[in-house]
C-alpha cells in the first residue's frame, strides 16, 4: 500500500484554518488552483480538478475535537483509499496541516503525489491570514 505524508506550515491560527477546512463546501476554495469546483450531497463530495478530472469522495468523519477530516476516494481508480487532513495548533498563533493518504494500487502514486503536492502549495496559499 502506498502511503503519502505531508506536513505544511500555515500562516494562520488553527481555529480559522479548521473552520475553513472542516466544511466540505469550502474545499474548492482551500485547494483553488488544483480544484475548480466542489459539490456536496450528504457525505458525498464531488470535486473537479483543474485538469478536468472529476472525483467523488466520501467524507468518513469530521472530528472537531482533533480538527481532522477523514475521507475516501470512491470509484474505479483505487482498490483502497483512505486519507485525512488535520490541523495542528502551534505556538505564536500559527498552525500546520498534516495530510495523509494511503491507497492501492501502489502505481497510483504517480498520479496522486503531484496532485497532493500541488494541493499542499494551494492550501498554504489559500489558508493564509
Automatic annotation (TrEMBL):
CDD domains: PYR_PYL_RCAR_like
A Pfam family assignment: Polyketide_cyc2
Name the UniProt record assigns to this protein: SRPBCC family protein
Species for this entry: Paraburkholderia pallida
Amino acid at each position: 500500500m502506498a502511503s503519502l505524508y505531508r506536513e505544511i506550515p500555515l500562516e494562520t491560527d488553527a481555529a480559522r484554518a479548521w473552520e475553513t477546512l472542516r466544511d466540505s463546501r469550502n474545499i474548492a476554495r482551500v485547494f483553488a488552483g488544483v480544484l475548480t469546483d466542489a459539490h456536496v450531497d450528504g457525505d458525498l463530495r464531488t470535486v473537479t480538478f483543474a485538469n478536468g478530472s472529476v472525483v467523488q469522495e466520501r467524507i468518513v468523519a469530521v472530528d472537531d475535537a482533533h480538527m481532522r477530516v477523514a475521507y475516501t476516494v470512491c470509484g474505479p481508480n483505487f482498490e483502497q483509499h483512505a486519507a485525512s487532513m488535520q490541523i495542528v495548533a502551534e505556538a505564536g498563533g500559527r498552525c500546520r496541516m498534516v495530510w495523509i493518504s494511503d491507497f492501492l494500487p501502489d502505481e497510483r502514486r504517480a498520479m496522486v503525489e503531484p496532485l497532493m503536492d500541488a494541493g499542499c502549495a494551494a492550501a498554504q496559499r489559500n489558508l493564509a491570514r
